[in-house]
Amino acid sequence: MEILMAFAIGILFMVGTYLILSRSLLRIILGTSLLTHAVHLLLLTMSRLKTGAAPLLGEKAGNYVDPLPQALILTSIVISFGVTSFFFVLAYRAYQELGTDDMEQLRGHDDE
Amino acid sequence: MMNNLLIMPLLVPLVTAVVLIFFNRQIRLQKWISGLSALANVGVAGYLVHVVRQEGIQTLNMGGWAAPYGIVFVADMFAALLVLTTTIVSAACLYYAFGSIGKEREKFYFYPFFQFLIVGVIGSFLTGDIFNLFVCFEVMLISSYALIVLGGTKKQLRESLKYILINIISSALFVASVAYLYAVVGTLNMAHLSVRVAEAGQGGVLTTISVLFLIVFGLKAGLFLYFWLPGSYKVPPAAITAVFGGLLTKVGLYAIIRTFTLIFYHDPYITHTLIGWLAAATMLLGVIGAIAYWDIHRILIYNIVAAVGFIAFGLAAANQAALEGAIYYLVHDMIVKALLFLLGGTIIAYTGTATIKEMGGLMRTRPVLGWMFFIAAMALVGVPPLSGFIGKLLIVEGGLQAGFYWITGIGLLTSLLILYSMMRIFMNVFWGVPKRPLSEPKKGTGWLLLPASCLVILTIVLGLGAEWIYPYVNQAGETLLNPDQYIQAVLKE
């Protein structure tokens, strides 16, 4: 299971990086979104995957999953959700104001 | 020592920010509330420093969960000093913003965002949990996203896109490094991490993880990876740039110093040498930027980069003198960078241009501003008896002791070039004859100089009162050198 996850995470990282390197702003934002997904899966995998166990079932539970990474992922998901939506709104506003979503044209000049 | 006082410097701006949101329409009331709360927070932070000095490291377990399991807040002297400096610098920038930020931004929640930014900065200094550090970073960064784009001019929109992108990527890397670290040692509490890493021995895997952390924090601090910094710090108005330049990069530096003195200090041959060379490159590239441009903002921004390199060099040398120097210089740099940006903003407000070639003769009409800029520039360069001197002296001494002769040389060369870059501003702006008619300053711009003059006095006091301040810095340096003190305070209760 861990091997499979490693591949999934690797592919997500790869696609995310590819999208971030493209010129269109929309693709870049989607790329960052995929990148954070990959990181969350990584966090989950790093605490070992066990199937069929709940995070915590009282103090005497025989079999349980480490709850900490799940708490961390939850926090991180909330943050990335907020940031991504903000980024989308900002990109839309920038598109309205600047008339382009091509990063090549958003380079800017030194003399302004 | 358990102490609820620890949460106060965080709580004051947080509560203020929430209250301010409800008074969105009454700008005058917002100014009063945020102004008073900023002053109150300076008092609270000062008291915290006093308590830490008297009783040693203070800790607070959030929600009563004991240390390695719950989130713990820790104030050692290093953190407490930085919190105090943060409150002072942010108060000065806030008072500057009162006169300069303008209705447009005030209407759109400038003051709440500003307070949230302070919450994030102070939280990052006080937290003792590495994931909580990430959360505090995010609080700070999200507020900074809002502040950098507030106003919505074209160039702000353009640059904030890049700023947000680079920070999202570095945050993702941060979480990834936390994940790897958790997989290897199974804890997130920094004191506990220190114990576990020491037990396991810092082998290849942990050193690799530490370099990953170095990249993450280096991106935030502008240590070598500063390519995003000049563009994005240039676009917001002076009050915001001042608070960014004074505080944000320093939070990244704090994180680097904390992790590499508390957790990853076992393999200095790899990590600290790497930090040393990154620092040298940062100093050189930063100062080259500072002498290459004619735009006053850009010159000051590249000076931030150079200073980041210098402080990181203090960490790389990692002996008593160098660490004390780094702490001293860090405090000095927060104050003096904010001061320079405030003065730079005032100069631009008076002359109506940011290009120093087009200025001139300001000394005749604005002598106070001229002398304040001169003192600030001298403090930045490290001319005795101003505040930059002692930090620089200690770092150089520590660097030589540690055998980093080359990098120490680069640091001294950098200081000379910084002197040149500052004098170039001074001579172009204040000497000679005005090259264009001075725009008549708007009413009320006179009191823009008041917060700046408080910071000027502070740099002089920091320099002349070194005898009196040194025990505090000494205590901070000692805690950094002996991680056991920190671990004892957090885990043995």
Q: What are the key terms here?
A:
heterodimer; A: mainly alpha; 3 helices; elongated; B: 493 residues; mainly alpha; membrane (chain A); cell membrane (chain A); transmembrane helix (chain A)
Q: What does this protein structure show overall?
A:
Helix content of chain A is 64%, strand content 0%. Chain A has 112 residues and is mainly alpha-helical. Chain A starts with a helix and ends in a 14-residue tail after the last helix. Chain B has 493 residues and is mainly alpha-helical. Chain B has one domain (4-491). Chain B has 21 helices and 2 strands. The radius of gyration of chain B is 21 Å and the shape is globular. The N and C termini of chain B lie close together (8 Å). The mean pLDDT of chain B is 90. Chain A binds chain B through residues 20, 25, 28, 32, 35-36, 38-40, 42-43, 46-47, 68-69, 72, 75-76, 79-80, 82-83, 86-87, 90-91, 93-94, 97-98, 106, 108, 110, 112, and chain B through 131, 134-135, 138, 142, 145, 149, 152, 154-155, 157-162, 164-165, 168-169, 171-173, 175-176, 178-180, 182-183, 188, 231, 293, 295.
Q: What's the layout of helices and strands?
A:
The complex is a heterodimer of chains A (about 110) and B (about 500).
Chain A: H1 2-20, H2 25-46, H3 68-98
Chain B: H1 8-22, H2 27-55, E1 58-61, E2 72-75, H3 77-100, H4 103-107, H5 110-126, H6 130-149, H7 154-185, H8 190-200, H9 204-221, H10 229-234, H11 238-262, H12 271-292, H13 296-317, H14 320-351, H15 362-365, H16 367-381, H17 387-401, H18 405-430, H19 449-464, H20 466-481, H21 483-491
Antiparallel strand pairs in B: 1-2
Helix pairs in contact in B: 1-2, 1-5, 2-3, 3-5, 3-11, 3-14, 3-19, 3-20, 5-6, 6-7, 6-11, 7-9, 8-21, 9-11, 11-13, 11-14, 12-13, 12-18, 13-14, 13-17, 13-18, 14-16, 14-17, 14-19, 14-20, 16-18, 16-19, 17-18, 17-19
Family (chain A): Belongs to the CPA3 antiporters (TC 2.A.63) subunit C family.
Subcellular location (chain A): Cell membrane
Keywords (chain A): Cell membrane, Membrane, Transmembrane, Transmembrane helix
